Amino acid sequence: MNLYPAAVEEMARALYIRALKQLPDDVKQGIERLRAEEGHAGARRVLDTMIHNIEVAEDTRNLLCQDTGLPIYNVLIGRDVVFDGVDIKDAITTGCRRATHEHPLRSSVVHPLTRLNDHTSTGRRVPVIHFDFDDAPERVRIEMIPKGSGSENGSWLRMCLPAEGVDAIKTFVIDRVLEAGGKVCPPTIVGVGIGGTSDLCMHLAKVAATRPLGSTCADEEGARLEQALGAAVNALGIGPQGLGGDATAFAVHVETAATHITLNPVAVNIQCHSARRASATLTPDGIAFGF
């Protein structure tokens, strides 16, 4: 299968807009579940407002949040796909710019020193694009994640010592959720990366934060840690928007990687309640959009 830049450009454009407007079903069901389980009247009112906001956004085809975020594209390419990587990267960037101009969207991307915004949602090394490969024949999957200020400022890394053990990981995660409080627009998905190098660890935390609700870590030890941390985080009483209550997080998601014998890195990335993502899968039969 040939992967043509024109098709990728259209996918990148459509995915940016779709991610900003349509909340995945698992997240909508997650808010409904938290609302049903919430024991605090004030927290229930906050969750009702969130549910109403989602309904209004979808009914009026408006954005779920004014923050269009930093655009991230995760590209998974299967076997037997013929492509030019440079052309595909350029096509994604062009699609991102087109979405910003043609919708139009607010560009949230600025130069890190001058703070100038050229209103394209792109810039040096942005959009962030990750390429990976799997053994699925003739299939390409592109996932788009807009990471806004709430869900990106909630990021931390600690290079723990192996001798500190798993308790250091648990303490670091819980302390970061407490530190974030209402600033990350809870209820959240708490993404935790463990292992690898510092950069891989932080990437894993984002992979975890944007994983669908209801999924579990493929690593058995990581899955056990998800359960323990999930219960601990929701016992903190932070509640929706930090105003108190039971619903601090939808879930804690963990992703792991092998690491060095002298390292034990742990990263946290917190996804706000508007946990936006969108995906498209290209095969010889056409394009299927999803989340």
UniProtKB/TrEMBL annotation:
Residues 11-280 form the Fe-S hydro-lyase tartrate dehydratase alpha-type catalytic domain. This is L(+)-tartrate dehydratase alpha subunit. InterPro entries: Class-I_Fumarase/Tartrate_DH (IPR051208), Fe-S_hydro-lyase_TtdA-typ_cat (IPR004646). NCBIfam families: PRK06246.1, ttdA_fumA_fumB. It comes from the Bacteria. The keyword Iron-sulfur applies. Keywords: 4Fe-4S, Iron, Iron-sulfur, Lyase, Metal-binding. It comes from Acidihalobacter prosperus. GO terms for molecular function: 4 iron, 4 sulfur cluster binding; lyase activity; metal ion binding. Belongs to the class-I fumarase family. The keyword Iron applies.
